[in-house]
Amino acid sequence: MAIAKPGEARPESEKLQTPLQFLKGVGPKLAKTYKKLGLETVYDLLFNLPRDFEDRRQTRKINQLLPGQFNLIKGEVLKTEVSTTRNRFSILKALIGDESGRVQAVWFNQPYLLAYLKVGTRLIVSGKAEVSPYDGQIQLQVRDFEIDTGDNLTIVPKYNLAEGLYPKKYRAVLKSALDGYLKYLPDKKKQAALLSMHLPKDLVAADKARDYLAYDELLSFQLGLLLHRLEQRARQPGLRFIVDPAAMGKFYQQLHFKLTAAQERAVADIFGDFTGGVSMNRLLQGDVGSGKTIVAAAAAFVAVCNGYQAAILAPTEILAWQHYEKLCQLFGGLNCRVDVLTSTVSSEQKRAELQTADIIVGTHALLEEKVVFRKLGFIVIDEQHRFGVHQRLRLIKKGEQPHVLVMTATPIPRSLALTLYGELDRSVIDELPPGRRPVKTHFVPKNKRRQSYEFIREKLAAGRQAYIVCPLVEESAELDLKAAKAEMELLQATVFPEFKIGLIHGKLPGKEKDQIMKAFANRQIQVLVSTTVIEVGIDVPNATLMLIEQVERFGLSQLHQLRGRIGRGEEESYCFLAGNPKTAEAKSRVKAMLETTDGFAIAEIDLKLRGPGDFLGIRQSGLPKFRVADIIKDEKLLLQAREEAKLLIEKDPESARNRWESQRENFEVAKGGLGGSPFN
């Protein structure tokens, strides 16, 4: 909502920003409890929508309880007791009765509720009915309850509440807010939708109201993203490159293979940006091994043909050198000089040579102040999520309105991409080059470990190579590193004594890492024990085997990235997942890895398992905090909102901007997002 500037009349809508402590029945003390839920103003309270609804028309008598199902009953508290287990876990039981019978209601680890469950109190209780393993009687594991005061609500909204807030009291405060403040919301349709959510006549009306509010929120957000993109283009005229068909013909002849249809589409998108006179700001998204580097190389060659330099920023030295070697081979027959700059290349003479290079590949060393380009016109940022906003901007400022291509090998679901990268143009490479075989993936329980080792030994004897991946997490990095070293020693001494085994991890100096990787690439090392340092960019086609230890400690997208290190040649490749997944989420991750090698399908599953806030640590990358919308469940609404936002901007840009400005401060966004986000 718009806030009045000094000297302007204050709109009535500002009354919605009234602190909750001034609402009837709240006060300063209870306001602190509301704050635990992120609710500080009347506006916050109105838009804190129910998580569920309880249909009290479906109440059952106690003698009608169905085991294994959720049931809703009304009854009187007849008896209560609290017991404590050996591990100090409390169990609260209340015997509840109605005219048909009695049932034991059970609350776990909530002894403080005893004060509210006085004998003779009438309750409304919902929960799952289960048969007790001790006495065979049905008991009710309570999900929600409240004191029955005999009101005539039939559809009751249920909210996520903090300790100290109880349903009846919460609804009374909310009713006060609706009665006194809802009229100050300028949009009448929103008023009606909020009433239908908080005081629903039926569940169908509540569902429609929720979808309306979610759609309205998504539409406002997409308006912000698209308007920002238009502004960026208007104030950032870019270099206009000429794409020479003859020069590109020579480039494609050097490849000795044909681009896939998806690669051709991505190249066409980029070339269209190059010739449009506006600075390109494009995301290139493609699964591991889909051929993003070739697309970036084609674009870099166009920049060079137009007299400009191209810079490729990589997150690790290993990946930078790998890009450098690949580009040297690619441009060997063309008049295009490739150079590399990492922290291990420090001489002033080497930095001076960058003035004559056409394509410069480097790590964070490219960002140093003393690194000066001759004429930087095109930038590629590989694995862009590993670089912060300010790092990217530092490199961009070294050129004059350069075109920028950011790349990621991590497939991002469409709903998340439209939310997080909505102001970027986006190209997707959604197919693998011909000849790439899907990796065969198997789960290895403890009793099958010996068989997996024997299989790997046979393949090693036939000339193949293997990765053994050990987990490494920040909380216990030193212990995990010791475990990786111990694993290498055990494998060398007892499992694969006839083969050379190496160890690589993140704490090794850059030169040592490079030496080990070169030895592995040259087949001087047959088995490479590694932490997740190999997750990004390592390309050894002869490595066709991978065993991932303690699979339950890896995220799904991370497992997919690791698996992408094999299957890069013509030989059949095998990935073994070893460990003991116990939680439902860990088992779901393993199941997904066994069922598909499609990175986009993996990403969709991972997003649903972890939610958008934790997907690849995106909480640090500018993800908005929606009050109503859920970008996983509401993907269809999101796509519709995106299209309507485009139409609104085309038809009436001033009206679209006014709508966005009136809503923009309702979106809370984590700092550290993409440079140029409309919310920074």
Descriptive labels:
680 residues; alpha/beta; OB fold (Dihydrolipoamide Acetyltransferase, E2P); Rossmann fold; 6-stranded parallel β-sheet; 20 helices; 22 strands; disordered C terminus
What does it look like?
- The protein is built from 20 helices and 22 strands.
- It is of the alpha/beta class and 680 residues long.
- Among the domains are: 53-158, OB fold (Dihydrolipoamide Acetyltransferase, E2P) (Beta Barrel); 245-276 and 291-408, 3-Layer(aba) Sandwich (Rossmann fold), CATH 3.40.50.300; 440-596, Rossmann fold, CATH 3.40.50.
- Helix 5 (203-235) packs across helix 19 (635-651) and helix 7 (261-274) runs parallel beside helix 8 (292-305).
- Residues 1-10 and 669-680 have low confidence and may be disordered.
- This is ATP-dependent DNA helicase RecG.
Order of strands across the main sheet: 10-11-9-12-13-8-14
Can you identify the CATH superfamily of the domain at 440-596? P-loop containing nucleotide triphosphate hydrolases
Q: Helical content, roughly?
A: 25-40%
Task: Please state the average pLDDT score.
Answer: 84
> How many β strands by DSSP?
22
Major β-sheet, in short?
7 strands, parallel
Per CATH, which architecture of the domain at 440-596? 3-Layer(aba) Sandwich
Poorly predicted runs are: 1-10, 669-680
Q: How many whole angstroms does the radius of gyration measure?
A: 30 Å
Distance between the termini: 18 Å
> Number of helical segments?
20
The first-level CATH class name of the domain at 440-596: Alpha Beta
Sum up the overall morphology in one term.
globular
Strand content: 15-25%
CATH topology of the domain at 440-596: Rossmann fold
Sheet/helix structural class: alpha/beta
